[in-house]
């Protein structure tokens, strides 16, 4: 028996004309994790190259608010524009990334990132998609301002809330 990646697990050799299935990943995070968001983009690009070279008919597309949301006015404020662009209930995966910041407050949540994650949870409870993967950077840091301390505290409360939920997301 062979172990590891086996392209034939995904399709039979009889289906050479098979269409590529696009799987959409939405990255949700506050602004202090740009390096990590870029790392997700790079990892997905590498994975897509591997899938193409193995003739596996899947490709991943990454959506990010700063790239996909068009600036402008919206009755719900800026988060409304982001929601329209990201279409979180229709994505396949939501990857949430945190380190020091909880994020910028929006009308309906403590932060845009919290709003997006809660939107994904509601969608998953209704239709079992998107899959939700949350990552909390555990590199120690010392808050240097009261605002940084407040952000850190809000983030810790949010993480505890998620972990104590009935069906906690993968963290």
Radius of gyration: 18 Å
The portion of residues assigned to helices is 25-40%
Span from first to last CA?
Answer: 32 Å
Query: What is the number of helical segments per DSSP (H or I, 4+ residues)?
Result: 5
The H/E string reads EHEHHEHEH
Class from secondary-structure proportions: alpha/beta
* β-strand number: 4
**Strands of the biggest beta sheet: in what spatial order?**
2-1-3-4
What's the oligomerization state? Answer: single chain
**Parts with pLDDT < 50 across at least 5 consecutive residues:** 1-15
Give the strand content: 15-25%
Overall geometry: globular
Mean pLDDT figure: 88
Largest sheet: 4 strands, parallel
Concise overview:
The protein is α/β, with parallel strands linked by helices and 171 residues long. It has helices at residues 34-53, 65-68, 78-86, 112-127, 146-163, and strands at 21-28, 58-64, 93-98, 131-136.
Q: How would you sum up this structure, described in words?
A:
This protein is an alpha/beta fold and 171 residues long. The protein has five helices and four strands. A four-stranded parallel beta sheet has the order 2-1-3-4, sandwiched between helices. The longest helix has 20 residues, at 34-53. The radius of gyration is 18 Å and the shape is globular. The relative contact order is 0.15.
């Amino acid at each position: 028996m062979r172990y590891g990646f086996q392209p034939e697990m995904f399709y039979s050799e009889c289906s050479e004309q098979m269409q590529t299935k696009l799987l959409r990943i939405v990255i949700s995070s506050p602004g202090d994790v740009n390096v990590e968001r870029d790392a997700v983009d790079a990892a997905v690009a590498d994975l897509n190259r591997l899938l193409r070279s193995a003739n596996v008919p899947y490709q991943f597309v990454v959506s990010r608010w700063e790239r996909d949301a068009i600036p402008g006015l919206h009755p719900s404020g800026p988060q409304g524009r982001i929601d329209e662009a990201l279409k979180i209930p229709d994505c396949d995966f939501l990857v949430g990334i945190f380190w020091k910041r909880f994020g910028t407050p929006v009308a309906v949540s403590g932060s845009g990132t919290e709003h997006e994650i809660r939107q994904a949870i509601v969608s998953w409870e209704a239709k079992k998609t998107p899959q939700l993967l949350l990552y909390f950077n555990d590199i120690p840091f010392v808050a240097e301002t009261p605002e940084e301390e407040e952000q850190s505290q809000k983030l810790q409360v949010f993480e505890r809330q998620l972990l104590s939920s009935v069906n906690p997301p993968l963290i």
